[in-house]
């Protein structure tokens, strides 16, 4: 094993370990989210809408208003909690998928010492698509939230930074494919 291969193996091993730790932390966060959601459901199930009656006088009392117009009422809280939970689980699911796929890339590099493989290029393309999805999820979630509970924050937010990052990662996938072609040509000449 030459010096370059040693560096590749060492870097891939470190990245693999860091990604495994990140995945473990991600699963812990998901477990905590499930426990908190379950606890909130139990508390709301036991207390019901009366849970908020100490703060507000009626079910239709305004929690948040803008320009004298009611924006958020107590009756919207269960829907908002459900919407927030869905958003959180979607983000964590996509983020965990990225961590798992990135882990496969570095695990494969560590085992084969070959960064330029067709699998790695495909993994990078998949990561790029997941990043792009994460970048547009807020806009879709807001549209769904407005349709379901009638609450809109008028954000319709797309992450330009995320879309640029997705483009960069997708471009790196093509660089990996080109590196694979060069590697195959070099192997054929030997």
Give an overview of the whole structure:
- This is DUF2975 domain-containing protein.
- This protein is mostly helical and 190 residues long.
- About 3% of the residues have low confidence.
- The two termini are 18 Å apart.
- Helices cover 75% and strands 5% of the residues.
- It has one domain.
What descriptive keywords fit this protein?
mainly alpha, 4 helices, 190 residues
Could you tell me the number of beta strands? 2
**What is the count of distinct domains?**
1
The helix count comes to: 4
Q: What is the residue-averaged pLDDT?
A: 81
**Major beta-sheet overview:** 2 strands, antiparallel
**Coarse structural class:** mainly alpha
Gyration radius from CA atoms, angstroms = 24 Å
Strand order of the largest sheet: 1-2
What is the N-to-C order of secondary-structure elements (H for helix, E for strand)?
Answer: HEEHHH
Topology:
Blueprint: H1 3-47, E1 62-66, E2 69-73, H2 77-112, H3 118-149, H4 160-189
Protein name: DUF2975 domain-containing protein
Keywords: Membrane, Transmembrane, Transmembrane helix
Transmembrane segments: 21-47, 80-106, 127-149, 155-173
What is shown here, in short?
This protein is mainly α. It has 4 helices and 2 strands; from the N terminus they run H-E-E-H-H-H. The protein has helices spanning 3-47, 77-112, 118-149, 160-189, and strands at residues 62-66, 69-73.
């Amino acid at each position: 094993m030459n010096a370059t291969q040693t560096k590749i193996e060492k870097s891939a091993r470190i990245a693999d370990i860091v990604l495994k730790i990140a995945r473990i932390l991600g699963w812990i966060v998901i477990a905590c989210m499930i426990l908190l959601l379950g606890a909130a459901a139990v508390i709301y199930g036991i207390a019901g809408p009366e849970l908020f009656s100490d703060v507000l006088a009626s079910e239709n009392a305004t929690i948040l208003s803008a320009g004298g117009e009611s924006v958020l009422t107590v009756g919207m809280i269960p829907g908002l909690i459900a919407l927030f939970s869905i958003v959180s689980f979607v983000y964590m699911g996509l983020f965990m998928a990225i961590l798992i796929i990135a882990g496969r890339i570095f695990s494969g590099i560590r085992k084969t010492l070959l960064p330029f493989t067709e699998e790695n290029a495909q993994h990078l393309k998949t990561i790029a698509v997941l990043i792009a999805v994460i970048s547009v999820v807020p806009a879709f979630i807001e549209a769904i939230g407005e349709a379901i509970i009638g609450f809109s924050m008028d954000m319709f937010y797309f992450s330009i930074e995320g879309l640029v990052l997705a483009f960069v990662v997708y471009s790196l996938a093509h660089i990996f494919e080109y590196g694979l072609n060069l590697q195959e040509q070099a192997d054929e000449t030997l």
